[in-house]
Design brief:
- The chain is α/β, with parallel strands linked by helices.
- It is built from ten helices and six strands; from the N terminus they run ααβαβαββαααβαβαα.
- Strands 2-1-3-6-4-5 form a six-stranded mixed beta sheet, with helices on both faces.
- The chain is globular and about 40 Å long.
Length: 288
């Protein structure tokens, strides 16, 4: 009964006071519009924040080539596995000190043999945003010198193929290499045809940081720039993020070896890698 009387009173009020009712309706509609606009603004802000976080560089894997019973190439007084490890650890330390929020993972921190497939697995399992493999170069001739940085792809010269073959040949030291690499023969030029089909959404990013590394080596250290190149490196092929392989110099060139074995020079090379990483990070996150 009371409910019915309340409805009757409300109806009479609406009939006798139409202006008041209109004011209330308009005011309510205005509040509704404000609420909708505020909700859309907060949603857009939240979406943008999530997008930025999603594309922030959080994890990097630094891979020192070779190790253990795999010496890599050698010079008169040095082994690739030792020089590469020293540079890799120094580069990682620069990143840790300057970007404490970034997680730095090393495939090895001592003289340990790590299979190529395991190096890639470490990066993939960590969902790394970037993979950097550090190496030293070699040649049958003692004349070649300089730095070069590789991204994954099909080689465009016999020289590039030779570098990939040398680095990939370490799988022959692994116990189950035929199973791990699906019968891939690192010494057969024909085996590298599979890389002609390689396509990756990460290639542009890989080439970008590779170019930055080479630029740092050339402009800051005055090292001879042999360019950014592509070749079929298994360790890069198996990764699922932007990835590069850096040849920091030729141990088979006596003068370059003398430079590379100095700890001061290794700090310089590591610093250049760090600076390239820093510039790449700023570019990547700035494009969000």
């Amino acid at each position: 009964m009371l409910g019915f009387q309340f409805v009757v009173l409300c109806r009479k009020f609406a009939e006798t006071q139409p202006k008041v009712i209109n004011f209330i309706v308009v005011k309510s509609e205005f509040k509704l519009v404000l609420f909708v606009l505020l909700t859309l603004t907060l949603t857009a802000f939240t979406t943008n924040t999530s997008y930025t976080k999603r594309y922030a560089l959080k994890t990097i894997v630094i891979d020192a080539g070779h190790g253990g019973h795999d010496n890599g190439c050698k010079g008169v007084e040095s082994l690739e596995k030792d020089v590469a490890l020293s540079i890799a650890l120094k580069a990682g330390k620069y990143i840790e000190e300057n970007f404490p929020d970034i997680k730095v993972i090393y495939t090895r921190k001592d003289d340990t043999f790590i299979e190529l497939v395991e190096r890639a697995r470490i990066a993939n399992d960590a969902k790394a945003d970037l993979f950097i493999s550090v190496h030293c170069n070699a040649n049958e001739s003692t004349k070649p010198f300089g730095t070069e940085t590789y991204a994954m792809g099909l080689h465009r010269s016999d020289a590039n193929l030779a570098v990939a073959q040398r680095e990939n040949s370490v799988i022959l030291l692994e116990e189950d290499y035929q199973q791990n690499y699906e019968g891939f023969d690192p010494n057969s030029p024909e085996a590298y045809i599979i890389f002609s089909l390689y396509q990756s959404a990460n290639l542009d990013k890989s080439l970008s940081i590779a170019a930055k590394v080479q630029d740092q080596f050339e402009t800051r250290l005055q090292r001879t720039n042999r360019g950014v190149k592509q070749a079929g490196f298994l360790v890069l092929y198996k990764t699922t993020m932007p990835a590069i392989l850096i040849e920091t110099g030729f141990l088979t060139n006596r003068e370059e070896e003398k430079y590379m074995v100095k700890e001061e020079s290794q700090y310089y090379l590591a610093s250049s890698i760090f600076r390239a990483f820093r510039d790449y990070k700023e570019e990547l996150e700035g494009s969000n």
